[in-house]
Automatic annotation (TrEMBL):
Its main location: cytoplasm. Keywords: Chaperone, Cytoplasm, Ribosome biogenesis, rRNA processing. Pfam families: PRC_RimM, RimM. The lineage of its organism: Bacteria, Pseudomonadati, Thermodesulfobacteriota, Desulfovibrionia, Desulfovibrionales. GO terms for molecular function: ribosome binding. It comes from Pseudodesulfovibrio senegalensis. This is Ribosome maturation factor RimM. Residues 185-205 have a biased composition (Basic residues). It is found in: Cytoplasm. The keyword Cytoplasm applies. One of its GO terms (cellular component) is cytoplasm. Belongs to the RimM family.
Amino acid sequence: MTARYGKDFVVVGTVVKPHGIRGEFCIKSFADSPFLFDEVPQVFLDTGKKRPKPLSVKAWRMHKSMVLMTAAEVPDRNAAEELRGMDVLVRTDDLPEIEDGDFYLYELEGFAVSLEDGKDIGILSGFIEAPTQDIWVIATADGREVLLPGVPEFIRDVDPEAQRIFVDPPEGLLELYEKPEPKPAKQHKGVKARSRARGRSRGKSAQKSDRASAGKKPASGSKS
């Protein structure tokens, strides 16, 4: 799902760079299988505009864990270079059907996340693609983000009717994201020390002045 296009489109990859001189470009795919590109009738690019840009895919192939794609709208390397960094989208309605009990990750965004005992953690706000596993991003009520590895060991159950996910995070994980207690404000001892120093300085000056005045002899011609 994309914030720009709501639930009509889902991100399935990102254009990394052009490949060669004939308009081929590399895509880092987020799909479980790159054969998704065989099963959807069309792909789109998030160009930052109100509507995504459709691509007429001519062919694709795998190369070093990347998808190499050619499209009719991308005739050469210069055109492919302009796609660098753009998200690759497909319509959610075009996604292949999956078995009962399985979910596409985008369908879980916005679900409440709880411990198995029912204690709330927050709301599932998104996912981070990592080399070995997806990271689930949970937004807490006080504005923190908890990063939870999205593996069956920690994701215990999904209740689609209640829109709730039950998790069993690794020991100590939630404590890492707790806000520390605010520390009491420290007194600025330096200011007080300088104030006392000034006070002592004024006192010594006054004492010297008094002693000097007391030791002065009357000027000549003065009456005793």
